[in-house]
Amino acid sequence: AQETLARFGAVNVHFLVGDGSLGWLERGPFDAILVTCAAPVVPQPLVEQLAEGGRMIVPVGPRGYQDLVLVRRSGDRTTQDRLSPVAFVPLIGEHGW
Fold first, then answer.
1. Which of 41, 55, 59, 65 is the most buried (most CB within 10 A)?
2. How far is 47 from 82, CA to CA, in rounded Å?
């Protein structure tokens, strides 16, 4: 993926290989997080890495069927809105499966 993006001139893309359920604490906070694997619940480490006014899209639910959830952070408060039923592969890691 790094080589492909470099061929297209993408210079503002960074890679981390590891447990995605933990996020990337050293690079946060983030204005937006897009999770592309399903978690049983919204991963708390990712919520904590959202910037003020930040938002995250994450599929949440059991294996095989989830709801796409929009998480928004405002101060110490977060809201969650269910957007649509979906089916994603499982998130593997400490805060996943």
1. 59
2. 16
